[in-house]
């Protein structure tokens, strides 16, 4: 007998000890708590704060790493370094100047774009965006280039933008007119979401539909009962999306904006 059983048990025991470490940021309010107006969401919820990174073991902060002083919005999580000299408008001092939160979104989207999405405001109207979602790999939507139109109103990001597909789409949660049934664009919206977050959610909806709240009954029932035919119909829309590409998308967008 070589007692392999007890060796295996020992190994199991070792693998069971969870050692979790990370370097999360902890935010602490500083100053006297005077509220400033957020340049992204326009709420008077910006305060001075210190953001400090901690080395953490099993969720217990052990070693303080670098820290920096930031402006922080309590509503939409907008953050900006306080070192550069930029200061938001003090609340109540005077009416805030007209802001364009979409400008902040564009900066974020162009400096650190998540894979498979892109978007930019129309040249003459920051409130209307053209966006593209590339079909996720290893799904029936692979290789598709799907165009979307996003329309913002003045209340954004306190209210969600309205989003619709311009490209023809065959999907359980997309209506025939291109509008979407997606919780974060309706009752589960949060001002912390930006354009990148919205497009990323739509991209993951493509390969992970919710057939329980169908916007396209035919697509939903094929998805549940006839996957082969569902995939065939989706591939048709993928091919259609390449043909759409040769058309002038900006003409569509201008029509929508009116
Ligand atoms: Zn804000």
TrEMBL record:
Domain of life (superkingdom): Eukaryota
Signal sequence coordinates: none
Keywords assigned by UniProt, alphabetized: ATP-binding, Nucleotide-binding, Transferase, Ubl conjugation pathway
ATP-binding among keywords: yes
GO MF: ATP binding; transferase activity
Active site as annotated: 181 (glycyl thioester intermediate)
Domain UBC core: 97-243
Secreted recorded as keyword: no
InterPro entries, sorted: Ub_conjugating_enzyme, UBC, UBQ-conjugating_AS, UBQ-conjugating_enzyme/RWD
Similarity field: Belongs to the ubiquitin-conjugating enzyme family.
Protein name: Ubc2p
Organism of derivation: Malassezia vespertilionis
Gene name tied to this protein: UBC2
């Amino acid at each position: 007998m070589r007692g392999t059983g007890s060796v295996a048990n020992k190994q199991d025991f070792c693998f069971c000890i969870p050692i979790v470490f990370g370097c999360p940021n902890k935010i602490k309010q500083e100053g006297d708590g005077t509220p400033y107006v957020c340049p992204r969401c326009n709420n008077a919820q910006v305060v001075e704060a210190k953001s400090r990174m901690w080395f953490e073991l099993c969720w217990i902060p052990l070693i303080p790493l670098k820290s920096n002083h930031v402006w922080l919005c309590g509503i939409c999580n907008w953050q900006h370094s306080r070192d550069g000299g930029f200061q938001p408008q003090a609340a109540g001092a005077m009416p805030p100047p007209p802001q364009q939160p979409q400008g902040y979104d564009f900066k974020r989207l162009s400096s650190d774009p998540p894979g498979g999405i892109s978007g930019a405001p129309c040249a003459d109207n920051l409130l209307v965006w053209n966006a593209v979602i590339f079909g996720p790999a290893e799904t029936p939507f692979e290789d598709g280039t799907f165009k979307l139109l996003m329309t913002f109103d003045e209340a954004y990001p306190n209210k969600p933008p309205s989003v619709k597909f311009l490209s023809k789409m065959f999907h359980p949660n997309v209506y025939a007119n291109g509008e979407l049934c997606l919780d974060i664009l309706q009752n589960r919206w949060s001002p912390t979401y930006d354009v990148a977050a919205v497009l990323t959610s739509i991209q993951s909806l493509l390969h992970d539909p919710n057939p329980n709240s169908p916007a396209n009954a035919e697509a939903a029932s094929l998805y549940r009962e006839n996957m082969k035919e569902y995939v065939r119909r989706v591939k048709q829309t993928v091919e259609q999306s390449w043909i759409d590409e040769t058309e002038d998308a900006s003409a569509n967008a201008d029509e929508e904006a009116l």
